[in-house]
Amino acid sequence: MDRLLEIILHTDDALLALVANNVYYAYVLLFFIIMLETGLIVFPFLPGDGLLFSAGVVAASTNLNIWVLLVILIIAAISGNLLNFITGKYFGGKLQRSDNYFLNKYLLKHLPKAQKFYDKHGGRAIIIGRFFPIIRTYIPFLAGMVYMERRLFLKNTVLGAILWISLFLLTGFFVGEITWVKNNYGLIFLSLIIITTLPLVFSLLLKKKSNSN
């Protein structure tokens, strides 16, 4: 848990230290972070886009193999979605009816946003949602709740995982050796977080404005 917290707060330094200590442990931990962020609704706060970019940057200058990492993290993203889909299918209704304060206030409150996103994009929401923090954690869960056809879900899950992981991981890898990127890594990491959360913040502001009217 301490290692996980360190990666969330100091991603680049923590990853470099982890790889230097045990590269195989790095593969395993990165796998579980990506799987849990997409696989359980209790982990929407885990880093996704920024972590993938960071892992790519680190792989460019260490013995962390980018192609092994690419395959491992795509499998993690697919596994996470499948776990979330199954959870939503078999336990979604019970969780929604739960009177647990924590579930309702901090977790299930995101479901209406995911529902709206799903209604707008249909099956493509599984792919598009990969690129939106929090949304990507809830869309598979919601797809399970509404009994989305398994084959359609699996197809979009695989395609979405390949696109999402490849984009951020390989971008980090190929620009990681650029001097400017090395010198401004913290700024880039923060910018990624801001950019990927802007659509969600914007939608919340619009909803608040419409409610006030």
From TrEMBL:
Keywords: Cell membrane, Membrane, Transmembrane, Transmembrane helix. Its main location: membrane. It comes from the Bacteria. The keyword Transmembrane applies. The chain crosses the membrane at residues 24-46, 66-87, 158-181, 187-206. It is found in: Cell membrane. One of its GO terms (cellular component) is plasma membrane. Signal peptide: none annotated. Residues 46-172 form the VTT domain. It is a multi-pass membrane protein. The keyword Membrane applies. This is Membrane-associated protein. It comes from Arenibacter troitsensis. The lineage of its organism: Bacteria, Pseudomonadati, Bacteroidota, Flavobacteriia, Flavobacteriales.
